[in-house]
Amino acid sequence: MSLTHINPAGLHTNPAFSQGVRIDGGGSLLIVGGQDGVDAKGAIVSDDPGEQSAQALRNVLTVLEAAGASQADVAKLTIYLQADVDLAAAYGAAAAVWGPHPTAVTVVRVAALGRPECLVEVEALAQLPAG
Fold first, then answer.
1. Which structural domain, as residue segments, surrounds residue 119?
2. Residue 42 maps to which CATH number?
3. Per-residue DSSP letters for 49-104?
4. How many domains does the structure of the chain reveal?
């Protein structure tokens, strides 16, 4: 299994994300459902968007690890932010947790999430290594 990051010369490049990701080889597709900034008991970790973003990504990493994968196997993240959330705060915290693993990313601003106190929700698509 391999991921090839596609960043054509005609498009903007950014070290934090890829414009496209091609998945080749065997293995299974892992779909990580929306992860909020909650702890293992389901409690919101903070009312700070940066802390919620960091926790949501740590929760994604927990699911990846349980499936035998890591952020290097993630082809796409979708990040949902409440409309009034400061994107810079969320991005800064996310970069600290996620590290240098650019993926295809879509950021969507929404009026509200399933739990109104949640400011951020993250879902992922990953290719699990064959075997």
1. 2-128
2. 3.30.1330.40
3. HHHHHHHHHHHHHHHHHHTT--GGGEEEEEEEEETTS-HHHHHHHHHHHH-S--EE
4. 1
Q: What is the pTM of this model?
A: 0.83
Distances (CA, A) of 7 to 3, 12, 20, 39, 67: 13, 8, 7, 35, 28
pLDDT tens for each residue of the chain, 131 residues long: 687 888 878 777 877 777 777 877 777 888 899 999 999 999 999 999 999 999 999 999 999 999 888 999 999 999 999 999 988 888 888 888 988 888 889 999 999 999 999 999 999 999 887 76
Give the containing element (helix H, strand E) for 6.
strand 2-6
Tell me the pairing of strands 103-110 and 74-82.
Answer: parallel
Q: Please list, in sequence order, all residues whose beta carbon lies within 8 angstroms of the beta carbon of residue 40, skipping any fewer than 6 positions away.
A: none
The tokens describing 15, both together, are: 């070290």
Within 13 Å, how many C-alpha atoms sit on residue 91's CB side?
Answer: 10
Q: How far is CA 130 from CA 24, 34, 101, in A?
A: 11, 24, 20
